[in-house]
Amino acid sequence: SQTIHQWPATLVQPVGSPLSLECTVEGTSNPNLYWYRQAAGRGLQLLFYSVGIGQISSEVPQNLSASRPQDRQFILSSKKLLLSDSGFYLCAWSGAREQYFGPGTRLTVT
Amino acid sequence: RKEVEQDPGPFNVPEGATVAFNCTYSNSASQSFFWYRQDCRKEPKLLMSVYSSGNEDGRFTAQLNRASQYISLLIRDSKLSDSATYLCVVNPYSGGYQKVTFGTGTKLQVIP
């Protein structure tokens, strides 16, 4: 069966510091992968999606970037965090119809 | 108009009650529909897909009304463990890459 991992689970970072969040998927090949952010009390916002290695599409202009160096690895990065980057970051993969989420990373920018 | 709209609630219901949530969507060409459940500070988890003819999974029943552009979720015999936020999800595509739209969720609190 497929599983999706994210780390770290929680992170507290100062404004202006870099960020790297990792997501890996097991049990499937060539999955579509997604990064979402959920701000406190708000809905899920799609940040990036990827349909294959090195293929990244950005949905929202921002100071974040994503990379997919391997088939089942998806990385979210920032060179300099802003206060507004705080939130719950979720990685997901999709099958034929549904999306399945990892456990998420809760990021607090101070 | 938002792409997907849900009543945020909270819906406070006693154990054993029946509760229903609606979700409206604006894109009449939307292809597939889902309900997810999200517990506090956890990731969303797929509850059920919604099929055109309606579908049932135990105490949960999902319905789709394309003419009025809404989907519904009915929960019978509510349990304390049903307390969560229920997210409506709409996918305008039939397959492949899925740029789905999530509603902001309806909060359910089942009271002893």
Walk me through this protein's architecture.
The complex is a heterodimer of chains A (110) and B (112). By secondary structure, chain A is mainly β. Helices cover 0% and strands 60% of the residues of chain A. In chain A, strands 2, 4, 5, 6, 9, 10 and 11 form a seven-stranded mixed sheet that branches. A four-stranded antiparallel sheet of chain A has the order 1-3-8-7, with no helix packed on it. In chain A, a hairpin with a 5-residue loop joins strand 4 and strand 5. The relative contact order of chain A is 0.34. Chain B is mainly beta and 112 residues long. Chain B contains no helices and eleven strands. In chain B, the strands form two sheets. In chain B, strands 2, 4, 5, 9, 10 and 11 form a six-stranded mixed sheet that branches. A five-stranded antiparallel sheet of chain B has the order 1-3-8-7-6, with no helix packed on it. In chain B, strand 6 and strand 7 form a beta hairpin. Classes of the chains: A mainly beta (110), B mainly beta (112). At the A-B interface, strand 5, strand 9 and strand 10 of A face strand 5 and strand 9 of B.
* Count of helical regions of chain A: 0
- Kindly report how far apart the N and C termini of chain B lie: 37 Å
Strand content of chain B: over 45%
Low-confidence stretches of chain B: none
Helix content of chain A: under 10%
Work out the strand percent of chain A.
Answer: over 45%
What number is the mean pLDDT of chain B? 93
- What is the oligomeric state here? heterodimer
H/E element order of chain A: EEEEEEEEEEE
Biggest interface pair, counts:
A-B, 21 and 22 residues
Structural class of chain A: mainly beta
- Molecular shape of chain B: globular
Question: Tally of extended strands of chain B?
Answer: 11
